[in-house]
Amino acid sequence: MYLSSEAVRDLFCQCALITGTGSRIAFSYIPTGADGRPDAGPWTGLMLWLQKAAGEPWKWSIRPEELCRLLEESGWTNTLDQMETPRKYGVEFFAVAAK
User: Residue 32 and residue 53: Cα distance in Å, rounded?
Assistant: First the structure.
């Protein structure tokens, strides 16, 4: 969430290039709201302001239903959907991708 969308895509692609079959990558992300901004629920405006004031603005978010496509285009497969693990904690979603 602290990188631009281009940097996130590039990071996944680079990781796919340097890892072998069976590799996994675990990460968290903030979902995108209907207004196109990162969605922290009713506290979105405050959270975005606080993150920016702290010098760590949220630059990237994604709709959960768009995650599989991003991962597949980057050389990964979303595996968390196949696991019986909670996918969300607080405002963050958690994901695991595999090659």
Answer: 20
